[in-house]
Specification:
The complex is a heterodimer. Chain A is α/β, with parallel strands linked by helices. Chain A contains 18 helices and eleven strands. Chain A folds into two domains: about 220 residues, NAD(P)-binding Rossmann-like Domain (Rossmann fold, 3-Layer(aba) Sandwich), CATH 3.40.50; about 210 residues, N-(1-d-carboxylethyl)-l-norvaline Dehydrogenase, domain 2, CATH 1.10.1040. Chain B has two domains: about 140 residues, Thiolase/Chalcone synthase (Peroxisomal Thiolase, Chain A, domain 1), CATH 3.40.47; about 240 residues, Thiolase/Chalcone synthase (Peroxisomal Thiolase, Chain A, domain 1). Classes of the chains: A alpha/beta, B alpha/beta.
Chain lengths: ~450, ~400
């Protein structure tokens, strides 16, 4: 079975979810593009969008249309060639509309799992629950006579466990997209000892067709991305708790968030990132990873307490940030949750004290948005972190320790065998988390 | 002609342009340009007629019948003759010609000509559909997604083949550089805020790539997508006197021509703009002058290659020598023949239906010493200005010869 044939009948499980909808979109477009190739004319291409939520599937159709439109507008030159024989399609707008219809014609939204019983390829993007994943995949595999391949989007469960418990016998691999899949360039590819070589070949071809950067990760819970992020988040939480001995926790959270964003030149501070991913999701991933960790405890009391108080973060369906540990306006975070009073405390009410504790920002500071456009970032960061290391203020000390810890987390991922190389770790953090510099570097020595 | 005025040419390049925010529409631009003209005359009621040049508001703005907007410029323009004219990107030039004819026919002493287009209402990929209306629709199916860039890409490709790629690109690069440098001198220009230090370097970095755009042009070879309007008064000597405009503040129309090529036929020679050649020659003949008496030219550089080909069509350089003429700096503002001294369509902007009028405004400014920072000094033996406004692929052309009155 060649690449095109494999993609003739595909299912996405959890298609209405945040990750599932993106995977569905990218796969639908890839399948539609294959169907437009002259050699594939007349072949049928079917993509089941399977989800338990009826309302989710209704919203999915709107999302798909809007996203396919954007895609079509970007590749109209190619589409005009593909539709050259359609004499009824003349203007770009005609062609774009025809393409949207052709992609949508492939997609079959359904709440019925049985649809996957005929697929050659199945993407799994249901919630991050090992038992649920195992149950669904096993059920499909028992009923699907085609010996399908399974690409799971799990960000934390070891693939070999899914493989073994669902009895998939080498037909599963980890194909971990980053959020949102339609935008983020990174995919972590995780194979087991048994993964079929032809399945790996297909996965690489598929990733390349989607213009994704593939980083291989070894099959250890959390892989590279969450392996770094969870530990980095725990470190941030720990620093805030330490600081809270000399100031209110709300102020400490503000400081750690600000230092991890501004001084470390990241797109968002660590507490904002936890909110972005979702306090619940972060807590859950830690819970999934923790049993596999020998000498460390990936667990945060603070997150547990936040969850108990209903502080969850995450995003609205339009991508806007929900309030979590921090409260948001369009411009960004504006307040922080106070667990004692169960309400948000505006930054404005304490930022003078907090800023004075942090000290003056060293000269030469540039925000992440500006720095990512700099060509020679290494020279910039060497200079910047040298300046920070010489600055005699609390924020700079915190930033240097933070960077050093992030570096150590990265190196440990390599020494633990999660990542094969330093470069793989850096690629994941640069492309999956949009850091401006890789965690493994020489800036914090 | 006198009392010219331009709005800002709004679109990418202007700092204040934000495609996601709501922007003023067609009505605003007609009013702004019209009223800016009226502020320079002492009696708006003396205007006899209004002509509005517009290409295709019916699609960009879902608005036709633009003659009806004259009274929004000034109440006294209600119940006066007003109509719009269309000849694709040559619509502005046609508005001028319509006004000139009314004056010559003595059916009017004072005509207000306004050109307008508001294009940023749709994304470029749909704008390309709309602008393709300047070609023959029967050819749209086999045309490029970006139809007009595709047409002129074919012309550029033919030029490269005949005279050499590197040779041609050198001239086109210089055309782009001149356009931006001139636009930086006019605060209404779309590229006024352009601060790129190494324009040639930028141009050379962007090799044409047919996968993303067209085969033989990059985006810097193209004119801008613009919202804008320009207006000017066309008047007889009596008309000027009525408006209180001194002769020194006006330019005289010494001759004009308007010719049109068969839109259903492909150009016989892709490396020649034959309609421009014939029209400009006729305009100069009507004015009784030759090209060596012209001190400055405003030409329709919808694409840099059109600029090079116009240089050849005007006889400034022989066929195939236009690229060298431009590369040597002869069309720069301090060169032998300053062309497009406020940036032309690539630098100032190209609100399609307004462009012909904008060219008249620039020449009026230059010949009467009102061009501000963009002012050039004309030599005594070259007192004439010449404009070339083109609709479609060398289909409808208007050429006018001006001299300080």
């Amino acid at each position: 079975m060649n690449y095109d044939d494999r993609l003739q009948h595909v299912s996405v499980l959890g298609a209405a979810g945040k990750m599932g909808s993106g995977i569905l979109l990218l796969t639908a477009i890839e399948m539609a593009d294959l169907s437009l190739k002259p050699e594939n004319k007349g072949k049928s291409f079917i993509l089941n969008a399977i989800d338990l939520s009826d309302s989710g599937l209704a919203g999915l159709v709107d999302y798909m249309r809007a996203q396919i439109l954007k895609t079509a507008e970007k590749k109209t030159i190619w589409l005009r060639q593909m539709y050259a024989d359609r004499t009824d399609l003349i203007e770009n707008s005609d062609i774009i509309e025809a393409y949207i219809q052709d992609v949508m014609r492939i997609v079959r939204p359904t709440t019925s799992m049985e649809a996957a019983y005929n697929s050659f390829l199945i993407f799994e993007a249901v919630s991050e629950n090992k038992d649920l994943k195992v149950k669904i995949l096993n059920q499909i595999d028992r009923n699907n006579p085609k010996k399908p391949w399974y690409f799971t989007n799990t960000s934390s469960v070891p693939i070999n466990i899914i493989e073994k418990e669902a009895a998939l016998d080498g037909r599963v691999l980890g194909f971990h997209f980053y959020n949102p899949p339609a935008v983020q360039k990174l995919v972590e590819l995780i194979l087991t000892d048994k993964s079929l070589p032809e399945m790996k070949q297909f996965a690489l071809g598929y990733a390349s067709a989607l213009c994704k950067v593939v980083v291989p990760s070894n099959d250890i819970a959390g892989f590279i991305g969450n392996g770094h992020f969870m530990r980095d988040a725990l470190y941030g939480i720990e620093q805030a708790l330490k600081l809270s001995k000399e100031m209110p926790l709300t102020q400490a959270i503000y400081i750690v968030n600000k230092v991890s964003q501004d001084y470390l030149c990241r797109p968002m501070g660590i507490f904002q990132l936890i909110d972005y991913v979702g306090v619940d999701v972060v807590q859950f991933i830690m819970k999934v990873m923790n049993p596999f960790m020998k000498d460390e405890n990936l667990h945060s009391e603070l997150l547990d307490q936040m969850m108990e108080l209903g502080v969850k973060g995450g995003q609205f369906s339009n991508g806007a940030q929900k309030d979590g540990i921090l409260k948001y306006e369009r411009s960004g975070p504006i307040a922080v949750y106070d667990m004692e009073n169960k309400s948000y405390v505006p930054f404005d009410s304490f930022h003078t004290q907090a800023d004075s504790w942090m000290g003056t920002m060293p000269d030469g500071f540039q925000p992440w948005r500006t720095v990512i456009r700099i060509g020679d970032k290494d020279t910039y960061f060497t200079k910047w972190f040298n300046t920070v290391s010489l600055a005699n203020n609390n924020a700079s000390v915190l930033a240097m320790a933070y960077g050093k810890n992030s570096d150590a987390i990265g190196r440990k991922l390599v020494s633990d065998g999660v990542a094969n190389t330093d470069e793989d770790v850096n690629t994941v953090m640069l492309t999956g988390f949009f850091h401006a510099f890789g965690p493994i570097n020489t800036y914090f020595v | 002609m006198a009392a010219g005025a331009n709005t800002i040419s709004m679109g990418t390049g202007r700092k204040e342009f934000n495609p996601k925010k709501e922007r003023p529409g067609l009505e605003y631009y007609i009013r702004e340009a019209g009223q800016a003209v009226l502020r320079q005359i002492n009696d708006p009621e003396a205007i006899d007629e209004v002509v509005i040049g517009n290409f295709i508001a019916a699609r960009f703005n879902k608005q036709a019948h633009l003659g009806g907007f004259a009274a929004t410029i000034h109440p006294s323009l209600e119940f006066k003759p007003s109509h719009s004219v269309e000849g694709a990107c040559g619509s502005g030039g046609l508005a001028l010609i319509a006004g000139i004819r009314s004056i010559l026919a003595e059916t009017a002493q004072i005509v207000l000509a306004v050109g307008v287009e508001v294009q940023n209402t749709v994304k470029a990929i749909y704008g390309a559909d709309i602008l393709a209306g300047a070609g023959w629709f029967q050819k749209r199916k086999n045309g490029h997604a970006y139809f007009f860039p595709g047409q002129f890409s074919d012309r550029a490709g033919a030029y490269y083949e005949k005279y050499g790629y590197d040779y041609a690109r050198k001239g086109m690069a210089q055309w782009f550089v001149n356009s931006i440098e001139n636009a930086r001198l006019d605060e209404t220009a779309q590229e006024f805020h352009n601060s790129t230090a190494d324009l040639t370097g930028l141009y050379n970095k962007m090799a044409p790539n047919g996968k993303n755009f067209v085969d033989h042009l990059n985006v810097l070879d193209c004119s801008k997508v613009s919202d804008g309007a320009s207006g000017i008064i066309i008047a007889s000597e009596e008309g000027l006197a009525k408006l209180g405009i001194a002769k020194k503040d006006a330019v005289e129309i010494m001759g004009y021509a308007q010719l049109t090529r068969n839109i259903t036929e492909d150009p016989a020679d892709l490396t020649e703009l034959i309609t421009i050649k014939k029209t400009a020659a006729l305009a100069m003949q009507n004015a009784g002058i030759t090209i060596d008496q012209v001190g400055t030219v405003e030409t329709h550089d919808c694409f840099s290659i059109a600029g090079l080909l116009a240089v050849e069509a005007l006889g400034l350089a022989e066929k195939g020598k236009g690229a060298a003429y431009v590369a040597e700096g002869k069309t720069a503002r301090n060169g032998e023949m300053p062309i497009n001294t406020t940036g032309g369509l690539i630098g100032w902007g190209h609100p399609t239906g307004a462009t012909g009028v904008h060219q008249a405004v620039t020449l009026w400014q230059q010949l009467t010493g009102k061009a501000g920072n963009a002012q050039i000094q004309l030599k005594e033996n070259r007192p004439y200005g010449l404009s070339i406004n083109m609709g479609g692929d060398d289909v409808t052309v208007v050429s006018i010869v001006y001299k300080k009155a």
